[in-house]
Amino acid sequence: MSFATIAALLVALLVGAPVAAHLLRRRKAEEQPFPPAKLVPPTKPMARRRSMLEDRSLFAVRALSVLLLALLGATPFVRCARLGLARKDGASVALAIVIDDSLSMRAPLEGGAGAPGKRTKFERALASARELATGLRSGDAVAVVLGGAPARVALASTTNMAAVTGALDGIEPSDRATDLEGALSLARELLRSVPHTDRRVVLLSDLADGAPNALPLGGGSDTTLWAPLPELVASGNDCAVTRADLRAGKVRARVVCSPDARASGEGAAVVSASAGRAVELRAGGKVLASAPLGAAVRAEEVALDVPEGAPEELTVGLTPGDTILEDDEAPVVPAGGALPIAVVVDVASTHVATGGPPPIEQALAAMHLDAEVRPLPAVPDHADELAAFAGLIVDDVPGFTPEGRRSLAAWVERGGVLLLTFGPRAATAPLGAGFDPLMPGVVRWGPSPSPGADATSAVFFGPSAEGLGKLSPDGRASFDPAAATNADVLARWSDGAPLLLRRSLGRGAVFALSLPLTVDESDFVLRPAFLALLDRFVGTARARGGARQIDVGDAFTFDGFKDVAIERLPVRTGEARRPIPVVEQDGRRRAVAPLQGRYEVRLDGERAVRVATVPEREIDLRPRRVIDAARAEELGGVVPSIDASPYVALGLLGLVVLELFLRAVGQKREGSASTSA
Question: Where do the TM regions start and end (predicted)?
Answer without folding.
Answer: 6-24, 58-78
